[in-house]
Design goal:
Length: 75
């Protein structure tokens, strides 16, 4: 399914960018197509990002944190 008609971006491409580490709409567009044109796709991309965060495993959640790592308890 096309997510962005202006740039011809598909859901697969957007999800690939998210899986590759993009954590914001701006990051997805920087990786795939510069920036949104008309903006109609922005809510869909936000939804995919939210879905990724909501379905992240504990290690996946660590990848979404600003530090990108989980603090390990000291022995």
């Amino acid at each position: 399914m096309y997510v962005c008609l202006c740039h011809g971006l598909t859901e697969r491409e957007v999800r690939g960018a998210i899986d590759g580490g993009c954590r914001s709409v701006a990051a997805v567009y920087r990786q795939l197509a510069d920036r949104p044109q008309c903006g109609k796709c922005v809510p869909d991309v936000r939804g995919m990002l939210r879905e990724c965060r909501n379905h992240a495993s504990p290690m996946g959640a660590a990848a979404l944190s600003p530090l990108g790592a989980v603090a390990k308890p000291e022995a």
